[in-house]
Amino acid sequence: MMILIGALSACQLKWLFFSSGSFLIRFLKKGYKPLLIAAFWLYCIDNVDTILLFLPRISTFADLRWNWQGKILEFSLALLIIYGFKGLTPRQTGLRLPKNNWAFIYAMLLGIMYVAGIVKFAIANGYPLPIHPSIETLFFQATMPGLAEEALYRGVYLAVLNNYLGRAWSVLTVKFGWGLVLVTLLFVLGHVVHYDRTAQQIVYNFELIDLVQLSILGLTLAIIREKSESIWPAVVFHNICNVGVYLYVLA
Asked: H-type helices in 85-228, by residue range?
């Protein structure tokens, strides 16, 4: 129970930071009410997601290192919202495959380039690379984080924000709006303000280099999603980024 309370407390802090950042849009975009409505729905969903991620692990899941149970429940939550409630469709949330299958190739190549850059930067600046990974680690990182987080963040969250705020801008044929900026902010905050289950405390990480790296990653994922009109190339890119550094250690 204390772990769940701690996780929900971290979620409230994340949304406190998010509210401070999103308030700036009040001065940049007319129609503040739609943003408040969208943020309210996202806040409710994010709290439910936090509960699902930090529920006590049952059966086989309890003996595993990584949170398979939480990520499966997170993906199930996204599907429940998309198929169980009116207002969102599989097309709006990007559950359909992209019209151009080359989007997967581009996502793979971009992911490999991103990993190569991160590894090179880490080595050059003395950052530690992960230890020799287990089979479970490789399988988890190659599947669950991208699947669950893309379905929720670039699927549900981005669709909700786009529905309320629109996509008024277009750069290099990519249509987007404030939703892309806000969902990236949420993604970054979710990684820099979180509850550490092992240490049983709220962890903050506002190091500039990590903020920049997460912002680039979040923006890239959102652009891939908007460009392809599908979350699946973003899932590929996300999972390659997650597992790539571990594969480098094995090479």
From this structure: 102-124, 135-141, 144-149, 158-165, 178-192, 208-228
> What sign has the CA pseudo-torsion 54, 76, 185, 15?
negative
Q: What are the structure tokens assigned to 158, written together?
A: 């981005």
What is the reported pLDDT for 27? Answer: 56
Question: In this model, does residue 145 exceed pLDDT 70?
Answer: yes
Both tokens assigned to 231: 């979350």
Q: What are phi and psi of 174, to 5 degrees?
A: -95, 115
Cα distance between residue 103 and residue 227, in whole Å: 9
**25: pLDDT strictly greater than 80:** no
Mean pLDDT of the chain: 89
DSSP state of 24: G
pLDDT band at 216 (very low <50, low <70, confident <90, very high): very high
State whether residue 125 is helix, strand or coil: coil
- Residue 171 CA neighbour count, 13 Å, CB half: 7
